[in-house]
Description:
The complex is a heterodimer.
Chain A: H1 38-57, E1 61-62, E2 65-66, E3 68-71, E4 76-79, E5 82-84, H2 89-110, H3 113-118, H4 120-136, H5 139-147, H6 152-177, H7 183-191, H8 197-217, H9 219-225, H10 227-231, E6 242-245, H11 247-250, H12 275-279, H13 299-311, E7 318-321, H14 323-328, H15 332-337, H16 342-363, E8 368-374, E9 381-382, E10 387-398, E11 404-411, E12 417-418, E13 423-426, E14 430-441, E15 448-458, E16 461-474
Antiparallel strand pairs in A: 1-2, 3-4, 4-5, 6-7, 8-10, 9-10, 10-14, 11-13, 11-15, 12-14, 15-16
Chain B: H1 3-35, E1 42-43, E2 46-47, H2 52-77, H3 81-85
Antiparallel strand pairs in B: 1-2
Helix pairs in contact in B: 1-2
The site of one iron/sulfur cluster (SF4) has 15 residues of chain A, from helix 12 and helix 13.
Amino acid sequence: MNDPAPAPAGKVIPVVPVVEDALYEVRKRIYPRSVSGAFATWRWILVWFTQILFYGLCWLDWNGRQAVLFHLVERKFYIFGWVFWPQDVFFLALILIISAFALFLFTAVAGRLWCGYACPQTVYTEIFMWIEEKIEGDRSKRMKLDEQPMSARKFRIKATKQFAWIAFALWTGFTFVGYFTPVRELTQSIASWSLGPWETFWIFFYGFATYGNAGYMREQVCKYMCPYARFQGVMFDPDTLIITYDAERGDPRGARNKKLDYKSAGLGDCVDCGICVQVCPTGIDIRKGLQYECIGCAACIDACDQVMDKMNYPKGLIRYSTEHAIKEHWGKKEIIAHLMRPRTFIYTGILGIVVAGFIYGLTTRIPLRVDVIRDRASLAREVEDGKIENVFRLQVMNTAEETRRFALGVSGLSGIELGSDAVVEVPAATTKGVVVRVLAPGDAGKTGSNPIFFEIKAINHEEVFVREKTTFLLP
Amino acid sequence: MSSAEEAFHSMQRLIQVLWPSFIVAGLAEVAFFTLIDPQELYLLGEPVHFSTLATYSIGFFGFWAICITSSWATCFFQRRASEINGLPDGGEVSGDRQSGCA
Lengths: 475, 102
Ligand code: SF4
Ligand code: SF4
């Protein structure tokens, strides 16, 4: 274990491989010290924002249904005014590509912004640590408590924490499942004790995952389990904003007497207080340089700025900067000037194209889809007055959120006509199968298959129109 | 190896097998059920009669089980000769295998 951190408060945390903590490594339990400051405020704003969104959005209604619902049983995704069907998998793919490139772009520009501020792992860890601090007390109190043998008091404190954690985790699990099964139905079935076995299972599964990841695994998830943490480095370049310790300014480090001029004593600005290490949720020392464990949470910036304030030194010994900027002593202006570089151009370009394609696809999407299936039982049949009949099955998918009537038509052969009802009514966002008989004179085309077209048009909505090709068999 | 270290190694190995297979099973699940409607599946010649949610869930655990087997097989084949022979390897760590993955 490598930790050169000055022992906080004169105490070395022993390397005790408690099994619950040794999920991935014989790790020292990290007791992050809480921190306040500009970046901490931002982190909390994002915690609130993402969580109000997550816990609240499933309760929002739209068009008389849940606004955002990935209805697994109906196999339909509702997102405000849109309804996506399995046939719209193309849009899903585009969303994935957009997310990936947005992530690449953010990473190239400003490092692990996602990790530090928006990733559920960070956000839940933050919330769980907040609960822990409220119940168990601050960092030194927590460490003391853990060292004590079990007592009635310790048991009470630990039990309260567990209760709060588990309650929060279960609510999270419930909310999660509420995005895949209508959340109001879910609430009702819980209230009436009739929750389905699989819903129950997934609520507990997700709840347990939240509890384990945010309560215990914490930084180990980022260090060992997160695929993004492993490859984010390839998107970095010397102009990427990263959390940096200004070694030139800070070193040589050391404790000092406030009355003496430290510069003449040959010391840099770092007082070697170790606070930056204590606040780090991943337990690293940023002064050693950028490490892949750093999730870019900026807690060490806030912490060190406070120390600098106390010492009356300028802030920013640890700050957001770039490798180039540190080396060349650039200011803000040059850093911003280097935002535009081939890498960011390429990411922005691809992102722009895919977003444009997505918007185009979405706005020109026709809320109607028709699948034509030939009736396999009867190929071609001669009916009255020498006409030939073919039977088709049309699957009419009305993806609009209102009931619509569709007029059917057929063309492609002279004298071809429908032998059954030409109007079909389909309720909102549903599929209706209709059996359609088509008649054509026996001499309308060549023997064998002839191309024909079904035309389906929404009555009162001229623009909702599709034309589907199929074949008509003549004996 | 101390018993704590051993416990840690088996825990690490367990996660190394379970976790990547979990991710891949999730991807497989999404891809599979986006393309295939659970109501259209057949099981031993009979249409699947489970509820949709049950089919998805069983599907997920099926994928997970398959992926676990594969991850475990990877770990299994990564064992060093000395580990298979059961002879002490003199503390040498050959570079051909990630530590903790046995
Ligand atoms: S918080 Fe700042 S002054 Fe204190 S050890 Fe870290 S870098 Fe040095
Ligand atoms: S080094 Fe600083 S920014 Fe990185 S994870 Fe630790 S506290 Fe957060």
